[in-house]
Amino acid sequence: MDSTTIVIFGASGDLTGRKLVPALYNNFRKGRLPANAKIIGSARSAFSDEAFSNKMREDIQKFAPADFNAAKWGEFAANLHYQTGDMSQLDDYIALEERLSSLEGQRGNRLYYLSVAPQFYPIAVSMMGAASMANETEKTGYRRIIIEKPFGRDSSSARALNSMVHKTFQEKQVYRIDHYLGKETVQNILVLRFANAIFEPIWNRNYVDHVQITVAETVGVGHRAGYYEKSGVLRDMFQNHLLQLLTLIAMEPPAIYEADALRNEKVKVLSAIRPPNPNDLAKHTVRAQYEGYLNEPNVDKKSQIPTYAALQLFVENWRWQGVPFYLRSGKNLKDKISDITIQFRQPPHQLFGAMAGLATNHLSIHVQPDEGLHLRFAAKTPDKGMDMQPVDMEFHYKTSFKEAAIPEAYERLLLDALNGDAALFARSDEIEYAWKIIDTINGGWDGSQAPPMMRYKVGSWGPEAADAMLARDGRRWAQNDGEHNA
Description:
Layout: E1 3-9, H1 14-29, E2 38-43, H2 49-63, H3 70-77, E3 80-84, H4 90-104, E4 108-114, H5 121-130, E5 143-147, H6 155-166, E6 174-176, H7 184-194, E7 208-216, H8 225-250, H9 259-272, E8 273-274, H10 281-284, E9 285-290, E10 308-315, E11 324-330, E12 337-344, E13 362-368, E14 372-380, E15 388-396, H11 397-400, H12 409-419, H13 428-445, E16 453-456, H14 464-471
Parallel strand pairs: 1-2, 1-4, 2-3, 4-5, 5-6, 7-11, 9-16
Antiparallel strand pairs: 7-12, 8-10, 9-10, 10-11, 12-13, 13-14, 14-15
Helix pairs in contact: 1-2, 1-12, 6-13, 8-9, 8-13, 9-13
C-alpha cells in the first residue's frame, strides 16, 4: 500500500498550530486521512519529534479545544515528525528528502504545504526542484504543493511566480489556496444554484437588479501594518476573496463538477469583467482610510493606502449585461460579516401602489459568521387591508444541521488536495485575470483621476461616498442602518 506524507514548510509558524494541524487531526479522527498518513514539519527552529508533537498538542487544545480527544490525539501524534531545516540551504532539502524516503519505504505520495512568507516561495520551490522533491512518476507516487495567498502582488509578479513554479511543478501539481473557498456556505452557492430548479431560471439580467458582496472586518491593521502598507485592501481582500465569490455567483453551470470544468467557467467570468476606465474611477470606485490609521505604528503619516474600498463592476456577457456588481471590504467596520445579496428587480406593474417598494425580493447568502440563507419577499399584514411588510424565509446551518458542526475551511481544502481534487483551488490563469482587474484600479488610483481618499469612523459601515455610489441609481447597501460617520 502506498504511504502518504504531508510536509509543512514553516511549521514553527502560527498557521501550522492554529489551522493546519488541527485540520489534519480532525480529518484523522473522522477517518478521512489516508491510512498511516505521516505529517512532518520543517523550519529553522530546533524541535525534536516529541517537542513538535507537544507544541501541536498545546495549540490544538488552545485553538480547537472542543475537538480534542486524548486517545485520538495519541494515535494521531504517533505520525507527527519534525526536521530542522533552513529554506535557503540545499543541503537541508537533501536531508529532508532522505528523511522522507526513510519514513515512506518504497513508494510514497507527498503533499507539500508552503506555510511561509511569500518572499520565500521562489527559493523554496527552486530548492525542492534541485533536491528532486517534485519529480512525480508512477514509481514515486504523486507530488503536490499547496501555496498560500498572496500569489504575487500584481499581474506581472503573479506571471513571474507562475513561470518559476512551473519550472519545478506541473500545473496539475499546484494547489493555490484561498481558505474562503473551503467555507461551507461558499461551496453551498454551487448547490443553491445548480441543484435547485427555482433559482437558475431567474439568475440573470432579466430578473436581477444588482449583486452586493460585503466582506467586513471589525479589527484594524494591528501588527500587520508593515504588510498592509505594501498591500492595501484591494490586494489583501479583493483580488482573492471578493473576486472568487463574484465568480461563483456569476459563472455559467459547468458541464460536470470537475476541477477544470469549474475553473474554466470562473475564468470566463473574470475575463468578462470590465474594470472602470481612469475617467470613471470617481464614479465607480471609493477608497478610504479609517480615522486613526495614519497614527498606527509602522504606517507612513502621508500614506495613501486604503483600508476600505467599494467597487462597481460589470460582467459583460449575455447573462449579466448591465447588472452592476457592488463589492466592498474594509477594516474597523461595524460588524464582522461576509455576505452576498442578490437583489431582484421590482415587479413590472405596481399593482399595490406606494407600498410596492416593499415587494422587492432579495436573497442573502451569509458566508460568516451566521452561515445560512435568507430569502426576503413581501407578505400582507393581517387586518390592515393590503398593507404589506417584508418577511424572510431562513436557513441556518447551526439550527438545520445541529448534529454536524461546520468544519474549518482548511479541513476541507487539505482533504481535497490529498484526494487530488483541485476544484476549490485557483488555477494560474485565474490568478492572472484577477490581478489584471485589480492592477487597473490600483493604477488608476495612482493617477491624476483618482477619487479622493475619504475617511470613516471606526465602527461605522464606511464613508458616505460608498452609499452615494449606490444611491445614484436608487440603491442602498443591504447591511446599512442609516448611521454614517464620514
